[in-house]
Amino acid sequence: MSRISAVASNTFREAVRDRVLYNLIFFALLLVGAALLFGQISIGIQRIVLVNLGLSAISVFGVVIAIFIGIGLVSKEMEKKTLYTILSRPVQRWEFIVGKFGGLAWTLVVNTLCMAIGFFAALYLLARHFERADGYLVVAIYFIILEFVVVTAVALLFSTFSSPVLSAVMALALFVIGTFAEDLRAFAAMSHGAMRVFATLAAYVVPNFASLNVISSVAHGQPVAASLVVYNTVYSLFYAAAALCGAILVFEYRNLK
Amino acid sequence: MTTRKSTVLVAAIVLAVSLAGAAVTVHQLDHLRARATAEEALYVPSAKILQGLSLGYNGLLADIYWTRAVQYFGTEHHLRSREYRLLEPLLDITTTLDPHLTVAYEFGATFLAQKPPEGAGDPDAAVRLVERGVRENPSAWRLYYNLGFIHYFERRDYAAAADAFERGSRVPGAYAWMKVMAAQMSQHAGNVQTARFLWSSLYETSDNDDIRANATKHLLALQVDEQVALLEKLVAGFQQRTGHWPANWTEMAAGGYLRGVPLDPNRKPYRLTPGGRVLVQDPEDLPFITQGLAEEPSQQQPNESK
């Protein structure tokens, strides 16, 4: 466990050193700008705009970081030859993968928490008070974190067998497909024969990001069912575990010479 | 067992269990969010805005919205819903994103026009949708046909129906019977033969299984409506002659009114009430019938719903 946490803390430190958290400045500027702008030019939707924009920005920034750092987690270590130094110590390959995943996931959690504080501050400045329905915003942010966990695992899986550019393209494509996962399953349900089998299989293999996105509904103050929180949590953990195990299996057999 | 082998074994087991767990969970999520996709899709209710946001991929987005509309209709229909409030906006977005998606006008209008629970029961919205389809696709003669159908069956506006069939008959490639249809409208509007002709022609000319199945249901409903009317006439004749209502079909058969127990198209015997009314045993199996229902018979003419 200490070896995994050592890899994870190193990954976190490296991400911070790479100035990943600079995105927070852009995020803050975006929120302040949006709050000021929409406060002047629109009526009645300032809060909705702020929530939509704020939560979407948290999601987009996080996904971009997860993909573009995730794809380099293994290849960068190989390129810099530091991987050999790590693996020559008593660190097993699976520990390296799990540690890398944990480090990036932690980076994203910290990043998200900072953005969430900024987001709630902007919301308070705009409305001058918090409402009961704002509690659902916390749930939406929690779902965004779950989304990052899945994206990080997927990006890490791709980075174990593919080049960084190809990994980025595949991870991004999978993210886009995943946001339409429910539609994909609807298409599968409408098809027939062999196509139905293939489409259903594909629809269940791609990550299901659709149910993790409740930004629009919470922006309208709609509640989030407790069962959705439970199922989304269980689903994300299962999917991330599957992707991580896939990464471990590939990495175990990868020729590192 | 070496460390690598045990790692691989554990990882493979966890991978299989996790994938299975994810599939089961996502299935549960789909149940939980059966209506959410369509509702969330309408958080951006403006098709024009969506057109801009689609970055030129509006055809693809239209396909997705059309699928959502079909899924939404299917779910509500399955629940025997009386209200389809998201249907019109979903169809509006679909056809604005892709004005040439004629299938959305054709099926969408049917979904909108049919009476609940078979549809949204909003023929005016259906007419608006198809009229827009006609404007965008003037060479699609089937849309005029759809329009005529809605005017005839749902709105009972026979002049408008005749006009729609007439306009459609002028489109190159339109079937010749479109002209016949226009003539029928002005001469025999409202009778069962015209209704049967319309549904039969739809059945014969469509290559879509769903449309053909729908036409078959309507033709069966027409048959039931006619049979019930005829049986009730016979029962009334029996009552006039004998001074009492028949207790059962056997009594009618013994009196020479019938050859045996009359059966509906699903081979189930019709029910005879003490007051001389003839009822269908399982009306659920025969959607669109207007006669033989347990409640008061409607005042409309036989099978006047699409």
Q: Which characteristics define this entry?
A:
heterodimer; A: 257 residues; mainly alpha; globular; B: 306 residues; Serine Threonine Protein Phosphatase 5, Tetratricopeptide repeat; two-stranded antiparallel ribbon; 13 helices; 2 strands; 63% helix; disordered C terminus
Level-1 CATH class name of one domain in chain B: Mainly Alpha
Judging from the principal axes of the Cα atoms, what is the shape of chain A?
Answer: globular
Q: What is the averaged pLDDT score of chain B?
A: 82
Provide the succession of SSEs of chain A.
HHHHHHHHHHHH
The counted number of beta strands of chain B is 2
Helix content of chain A: over 70%
Portion of residues in helices of chain B?
55-70%
What integer value in Å does the Rg of chain B equal? Answer: 26 Å
C-alpha Rg of chain A, in Å?
20 Å
Beta-strand fraction estimate of chain A: under 5%
Quaternary structure:
heterodimer
Low-confidence stretches of chain A: none
Query: What is the tally of beta strands of chain A?
Result: 0
**Stretches of chain B where pLDDT falls below 50 for ≥5 residues?**
297-306
Class derived from helix and strand content of chain B: mainly alpha
Question: What do these coordinates show?
Answer:
The complex is a heterodimer of chains A (257) and B (306). Chain A has 257 residues and is mostly helical. Chain A is built from twelve helices and no strands. The model of chain A has no long low-confidence stretch (mean pLDDT 85). Chain B has a domain at 36-215: Alpha Horseshoe (Serine Threonine Protein Phosphatase 5, Tetratricopeptide repeat), CATH 1.25.40.10. Chain B has helices spanning 3-32, 36-41, 47-53, 58-78, 87-97, 102-113, 123-136, 141-154, 158-169, 177-188, 192-205, 209-242, 249-254, and strands at residues 271-272, 278-279. A two-stranded antiparallel sheet of chain B has the order 1-2. In chain B, a hairpin with a 5-residue loop joins strand 1 and strand 2 (278-279). The model of chain B is unreliable at 297-306 (pLDDT under 50). Classes of the chains: A mainly alpha (257), B mainly alpha (306). Chains A and B meet through helix 9, helix 11 and helix 12 of A and helix 1, helix 2 and helix 4 of B.
